[in-house]
Amino acid sequence: MNMTAGVIGLGSMGMGAAVSLVRAGITTLGLDLREEARTAFAAKGGMPAPDATTLGRLSDVVLAYVVNAAQTREALFGPEGAVAAARPGTVFVICVTMQPADAAEICDRLIKAGMLAIDAPVSGGSVKAAEGQISMMASGPDAAFQRAAPVLDAISATVFRLGEAPGAGARMKVINQMLAGVHIAAMAEAMVMAAAQGMDLAEVHRVIQSCAGNSWMFANRGAHVVAGDYTPHSAVDIFVKDLGIVAATARAAGAPAPLSLTALELFQQASKAGLGRRDDAAVALHLAGQAGITLPDDGNDRSDKDKTP
């Protein structure tokens, strides 16, 4: 396939996208500050880029998978950013969770620089990212989607087209993260209550998945609690950030968000308790500690800062 893609940020989601592109036969450059991430990408057939400038100059499509809006601006528009060296018409796909106003501003800057921009935050977790099966909540011009089609097809199962205006994808991701964060908090509360009553957590997890109280997050993150495995597929600190975005967006919209604010407080407490870089299901460990209950815990802290659910 005569196309080159560049991925900025090789955390769990970015690495999954980059490896999916390689698997699809697309020449793929990857950039990350961590040497171990660059080495792992090279071992899977990718080409580590020395800097964002080089990546931007060589890529037809650039995907940003960094942590927040500030890192996105630095990677794209900073002194060694990707945009200055990119060819006019290069498609930039912004896969970062951020406030809608930030997404719109970044996309507008890209357009003024002669680029095509897609506001496209993603969901599905690290496993689906590795399989090229994520969902994308995307907005941007048709020309951008057409040009980036081989890349989007390689990394996603579904691309939800939400119009042309930048920020529409970010607004949808805020709603997703609102629900995801609240559901993880509810999962943690339920599992700790079950443990407090001496219930078998594996049985609770199995039964509830066939009942009305189930959610995707209960099924997925509840399994982490049952196994005592808090390997950070998405870390507590990610939800401190994302629910902070939810809270700010709710304030700006004048929308009440009491459950989101309560969940945010729980994630903040868990982070302050030293659980910030463990899997987001570790909020259950924090609640268990408050109750004087011991949950299964393998004790491993295999952390990665760049994790997105």
UniProtKB/TrEMBL annotation:
Residues 6-163 form the 6-phosphogluconate dehydrogenase NADP-binding domain. Residues 167-284 form the 3-hydroxyisobutyrate dehydrogenase-like NAD-binding domain. GO terms for molecular function: oxidoreductase activity. Its EC number is 1.1.1.411. It holds the Pfam family NAD_binding_11. It catalyses: L-threonate + NAD(+) = 2-dehydro-L-erythronate + NADH + H(+). It comes from the Bacteria. PROSITE patterns: 3_HYDROXYISOBUT_DH. It is an enzyme of class 1 (oxidoreductase). The keyword Amino-acid biosynthesis does not apply. Keywords: Carbohydrate metabolism, NAD, NADP, Oxidoreductase. SUPFAM superfamilies: 6-phosphogluconate dehydrogenase C-terminal domain-like, NAD(P)-binding Rossmann-fold domains. The keyword Nuclease does not apply. Catalyzes oxidation of L-threonate to 2-oxo-tetronate. Can use either NAD(+) or NADP(+) as cosubstrate, with a preference for NAD(+). Belongs to the HIBADH-related family. L-threonate dehydrogenase subfamily. This is L-threonate dehydrogenase. It comes from Paracoccus mangrovi. The lineage of its organism: Bacteria, Pseudomonadati, Pseudomonadota, Alphaproteobacteria, Rhodobacterales.
